[in-house]
Amino acid sequence: MIMKALHALFLEHPTICTDTRKITENCLFFALKGPNFNGNAFAQEALDKGAAYAIIDQEEFKTSDRLLLVDDVLDILQQLSTYHRNYSKAKVISLTGSNGKTTTKELISAVISKKYKTIATKGNLNNHIGVPLTLLSIKEDTEMAIVEMGANHIGEIGFLSTIAQPDFGYITNFGKAHLEGFGGAEGVIKGKSELYDYLKTNDKYIFLNADDDIQKEKLSTYTKKMGFSTNDHHYYNIKFLGVDPYVLLEMEGIQITTQLVGKYNFPNCCAAILMGKYFNVPLEDIKSAIERYQPQNNRSQILSKNGFDIVLDAYNANPTSMKAALENFSLMNADRKTLILGDMFELGNTASEEHQAIAELAKELGFDDAYLVGGNFHDTNTTLNKFKSFEDLKVHLSKKPLKKGALLIKGSRGMALERVLDFL
Fold first, then answer.
1. 83-108: burial string, b at 16+ Cβ within 10 Å, e else
2. Pfam families this protein is in (predicted)?
């Protein structure tokens, strides 16, 4: 099918569905395939539930004129999203990085939407399917689109950049995340920098954290850039005032009291402030947007329950974010501090070394109690409490309940450590 014709059809039916359980009236259903499913087999069901058309790529499923046959459904979805991105008048800001992508994206969206009609990636739909779906959510009146891009191997950010074709870009940091897929720390830097490569090749604009030596070096000769720093006056200065437990900062003499825990969230706020400055959002609106933003979905949330003051950071974990969380928690004022840490995933052959380092840091920082959960932590050489599974931890705490006080809960998503809240 000619892309112009498909796009015209999309403008008539501007809702995309890829799951028959979420069909809406007059949507376009894209029959994607996965390891354990074939969307083609559900295309007729999508029509029966109200979809206007279904896009399929297996001829045996074409049983009506409303089933549109293409060579590859995923490829067509990606091509359509790029076509729509260029059809629209919206400016696209793409961001990636090892840690803090989603929080930073939401902060940028909060600030930019104070002045512009803005759409942003929903949740963390930041892969080869999520990025196209975000681009296809651009409306006629959208002025700014903030597109989060995730990756776990070399080449992925470069590919997503060709789909999104960003006008602006930002990398949060280069940390120890997805080491298995990237082949180590150098691979992470190379993979995430593919966004820089795209932006520089296409003469686009880059935002940077000038206090990050890697970013500063990589962009030392590039001129279309704007950065923030706490000490380098060649860049926009933002002061870090402290954290207890929330980040306090100052821009141009205006103090901002955030609802974000941990110094590691300071640069995330700075990125949003920087873009607000670039796009001429009034300072008071920048302040208001950042102060009102509250983290959700187990990301550095502050909760109180049954005498516990809880830092719930159970959405994800890698060695860089784990170290930052521990160091931040150690600085919090509390009579008693307890850790519950879960395994960090996708570390490949560095898993043993990285889990050992975190166990040693937890011991060194001298918390009142610490509980390490998961096969990797269970294999560490430490005197801290270790449990091979969450169920083992649950049994232990049913017999010896946690003592009330401050509690940090952090681990990779697959550990689902938020379950601890159920039996405090």
1. bbbeebebbbbbbbbbbbbbbbbbbb
2. Mur_ligase, Mur_ligase_C, Mur_ligase_M
